[in-house]
Amino acid sequence: MAKSKKKKPVLSPKTKILTIILLIPITLTIYIVAYFSWQQVRGWPFTEKTVYQQIQEQFDLEIPIEYIPVYVAAEQKYGVPWTLLAAHHRVETRFSTMSTLISPVGAEGHLQFMPCTFVGWQHPSCKDLGQGEIPEHDKTNPAVIKKYGGYGVDANGDGIADPFDIEDAVFSAAKFLSIAGVNDGQLKKAIFQYNHSDEYVENILFYYKQYRDYGNQLKKIALDENK
């Protein structure tokens, strides 16, 4: 039987050592380039949106990103935390996703104002729950609202204070809450004034605390998105 010939190694030991020595700087270079590339990518908008989505997964309903700048602007004007305004919006109309923005008792708009609260309880038709008999054109008239001491605000400067306009509604809610006690540090009192229900207060505080934990991150991402 013929003896099988020993196969010579493809690479000699010396060549292997040289190959390894050459590969070390190449590997290090690839690692360094990959590391610094990732540092740059981390700052790109799509990675921030991923963070935003991860935060939103903590909530039962996503806070629409387009509303956050409105909440923040109202916070800056009235001193009411934007996360508290978001909590009210969540509880009142599920971020305006309800099929109607008029409640069975007559509360109207994104933040569910009774007409007499929005226009002012000094209006001669205001009594009981506050539905009143206020003409439609008076409900959104800033001059009428000022006359009767209402909380309605023309936030976007279009000449009307409309509870069905998101900016007007949020600013009006912020005005109400600031006067009702938030600016004096009486958060629970202010929330109770908005809706006289202990359960309501608990619900608002639940969402407020949830949103507050991520408030700075959400605000930064939303405002950057809005630039």
UniProtKB/TrEMBL annotation:
SUPFAM superfamilies: Lysozyme-like. Gene3D superfamilies: 1.10.530.10. Keywords: Membrane, Transmembrane, Transmembrane helix. The keyword Transmembrane applies. It comes from the Bacteria. InterPro entries: Lysozyme-like_dom_sf. The chain crosses the membrane at residues 20-38. CDD domains: Slt35-like (cd13399). This is Membrane protein. It comes from Solibacillus silvestris (strain StLB046).
